[in-house]
Amino acid sequence: MVRISIPTLPKAPLVPPSGLSVLPIPQAAAHLASFLEKGKGKTVMLTGAGVSVDSGIRAYRGEKGTYSNPNYKPILFHELVEDSDRGDMFRRRYWARSFLGYPPVRDAQPNPTHIYIAALQHLGLAPKLITQNVDNLHRKAYSLLSPSYKESNILELHGTLAKVHCLKHRHEQKRDSYQEEIARMNPVWDEEAKEAERTGRRPRTNPDGDVELHGVDYRSFSVPPCRICEQEKVDPSMVKPNVVFFGETITPRVRDESLNLIAEASSLLILGTSLATYSAFRLVKSAIELNKPVLMITTGPTRADPFVEKGMEKMDRVAGDVLGKYLDEAVKTSTGQEVEDVKRYLHTGVVKRPPEVEGPRAEG
């Protein structure tokens, strides 16, 4: 039996804070300006859960790099797809919890950091973005600045919760349609979801849209099969969200595309992530091996900290603060429609902290 564990990080930073971490914000923003200028519009950005905390979506890890919810036990990929009575119960448990957990993620709005990142793309300073997040917030932010934005400029490394597909035939549909099907088949759960929305007393939601429920019997919960399979009169297949589960690997297409983006980039800007997952860490490792300049702006220890000895620069601070100051200065001396678009939305965005998050903005 293969043992699969949730990626963890050291309890303490592997390297002491650098001089970049203690620079006043204006000087930190000036350093970012120099980094992007040298990138000449070919800098690629890599983001993680930390950038979505201010949108009310809890990060996996806190400011010290420790797992924020050590008692949380997500469904692993092999459990979800197991063809047995046990697997059937895992699917009931996953979809019941995700049915309640998806609406807060679906309804979340971009925060200022998402707007800043979209601005860097829209201005052509760092047009390509790789994100580990599955919350769709980067796309929402970019579409505000540019309704005709290129979807190909954002690569979702771990997929998106906004879509689902069946495993046997790869029939894809919007998540909202599947949510409606779940609600129709589970009226009691649907009423619970509506009550939670009315009162605001939603259970704790994790970044993958799963929630914590205790003492619940999932046997009465019905998981809809793929309706497209039924319409096409083929064997119905189980449905999963378009996200990479723990224990599942990213597709070869996404892996190759992400590595190609790094190979073609002039530099790599990392924002709000501890890089605990190998699929993201591998990209930084590749950039270092290719001698690309790398700047990381995030809080707490990360898996990539040893790369500081190989030339990676790290600012141990909240990314949004630096990005916002940099863009304030950048748009002062620039002109054009893109600049006007950015000015219109620059300091907008909704800040809605997760109810149980206190202190500094965690960037996991």
From TrEMBL:
UniProtKB keywords: Mitochondrion, NAD, Transferase, Transit peptide
Record bears the keyword Transferase: yes
Record's subcellular location: Mitochondrion
Main location group: mitochondrion
Positions of region (Disordered): 190-213
PROSITE patterns per record: SIRTUIN
Compositionally biased tracts (Basic and acidic residues): 195-213
Matching Pfam families: SIR2 (PF02146)
Gene Ontology CC terms: mitochondrion
Gene Ontology MF terms in the entry: histone deacetylase activity, NAD-dependent; NAD+ binding
Family membership noted in the UniProt record: Belongs to the sirtuin family. Class I subfamily.
Protein name, as recorded: Deacetylase sirtuin-type domain-containing protein
Organism: Kwoniella heveanensis BCC8398
Lineage: Eukaryota, Fungi, Dikarya, Basidiomycota, Agaricomycotina
